[in-house]
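Figure 6 in text form: structure in, sequence out.
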């Protein structure tokens, strides 16, 4: 699978890393996995720096609406995308479609920057 999802309940963090060409269905399955594991409210890092998608902008917008309208939509945690600095325009465009106040979202060119931003804006009380 070109998308590998790791969920840390202890850190309340979801990390999804995509490689190669990913389909809209694979994107949807990764979101579904996060929901099924009870991690919708966790911080998320989505690393698409080494990936492409065969989904067009309309399909990506549909996925965004689907996530926004989920029953637990108001509980979604902050989202940090990691993109290739030379070709992250699609993700940047999607980030502008997030409704103001909906949830924090950032687009970064390094995993370190993304993690630092998530740590700054979302303080986590670790499960014991």
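Output sequence:
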């Amino acid at each position: 699978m070109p998308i590998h999802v790791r969920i840390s309940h202890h850190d309340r963090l979801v990390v999804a890393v995509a490689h190669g060409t990913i389909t809209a269905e694979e994107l949807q399955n990764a979101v579904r996995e996060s929901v099924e594991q009870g991690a919708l409210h966790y911080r998320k890092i989505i690393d698409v720096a080494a990936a492409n998608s065969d989904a067009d902008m309309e399909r990506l917008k549909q996925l965004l609406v689907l996530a926004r309208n989920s029953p637990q939509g108001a509980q979604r945690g902050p989202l940090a995308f990691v993109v290739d600095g030379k070709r992250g325009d699609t993700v940047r465009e999607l980030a502008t479609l997030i409704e103001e106040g909906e949830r924090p979202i950032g687009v970064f060119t390094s995993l370190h920057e993304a993690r630092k931003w998530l740590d700054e804006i979302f303080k986590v009380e670790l499960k014991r």
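Caption detail: Residues 24-36 form the longest helix (13 residues).
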